[in-house]
Amino acid sequence: MQYGYFANIHDPTQARDYGEMITEVRQLAQVCEAAGFATFWLPEHHFSVWGRELLGNPLMMAADIAARTERIRIGLAAAIITFWHPLRLAEDLALLDQLSGGRLEIGVGRGNYGLEASNLNPAADPNNRAGNVKVFLETLEVVRKALSEDRFAHCGDLFAFPAPGFRADKAHTVKDHNYIDPVTGELVRLTTYPRPQQRPMPPLWQVVSEDYESIRFCARNDMGIIMWRPTAKEVRRRLAAYKQAWGTGAGRTMVAPRAALVRDTFVAESASEARRIAGQAVMDALNFANWRGARIFLDPDERLTADEEARLGKELTFDFVNERALLFGSPDDVLAKLIALHEQTGISQIIFKSSWPGLPHEHTLRSMELLTQQVLPRFERRLTKAAGARAAAQ
């Protein structure tokens, strides 16, 4: 089992010092590294007039975290690649991989918010799915080529690299036969610098919701999936679809299917204390993101009545979400939930999220202390014991 942590910067009051919030993210990264976590994940969001998602450049934050840690891998969950120029993004990713000593995990996303797209790339408006997907797929194709191929070319509907017709700049003529057409002298291949430390390129992931085509796309294209809060039964269904599609892919660099699950997690002395301290904060965050409605917390084939759907679409409740998608409670409670989650799904990577707008940082640190000292060591011992029993039975 591998563990990750999902960190964001948020301030609904829009009054806190941003440097203090950066310090809190740094502290969490160091806590996670000390606890042996595999990954530390950072998101990308822009223009939050609500003060809830205030990290506009996860690559720069990742570079800072990499400089303050030694072993933990730094993940982007996700870089919203529809808002980046693909060549600049490839260059920045490769430099980040070098700066981190080859510890970069690249999670990519299409974007959720029209506010962001309208100001950064209207062609990628998520409210226009066809246009958004087109920008995403071609941007991803260019980034993959630029990172994994020492010399590459691309000609698509949106981008053409190298730019057609280039033969020389004001000072230099390109003469290297690896880059030019020998007849015309035109530049027909490019290289981005630096090259990434991980070859052929850092691991790719996509953050996925209920879109099964995205899940199958990742499986066919050598990408891991990060699942955002589904129930255990829905996780099992998504993993089955992912693994089935995995068998149809080609050119693998991953040795096995790779999937991770995000869980909002808070550990306190008791279940009532966990809810008292963090229940309102997590529910405010979930209701802020409730534009998809309660369906994302349903089991496969589960249906709500019209009244339930209307009520929960207006406001999710803690009781509805808790057993479906939260790891809240005492150390014993959270341990039991982790055991059940693993037994029901077989998931091998869990990404914990223990900070939400309005929750004081000291509560997040205390929850992480209980999780890493009183929950995960017992969980690991149980997994080791179970693996030994299986080996003995074979």
Task: Tell me what the structure shows.
- It is a single chain.
- With 394 residues, the chain is α/β, with parallel strands linked by helices.
- Helix content is 45%, strand content 14%.
- The strands form 2 sheets. It has an 8-stranded parallel barrel, surrounded by 6 helices. Strands 5-6 form a two-stranded antiparallel sheet.
- The protein has one domain (2-275, 328-393): Luciferase-like domain (TIM Barrel, Alpha-Beta Barrel).
- It is built from 12 helices and 11 strands.
- The mean pLDDT is 95.
- It is globular and about 75 Å long.
- Helix 1 (18-34) packs parallel to helix 12 (361-393), helix 2 runs parallel beside helix 3 (86-99) and helix 6 (212-220) runs parallel beside helix 7 (232-246).
Short key terms for the protein model shown above:
394 residues; single chain; TIM Barrel; eight-stranded parallel barrel; 11 strands
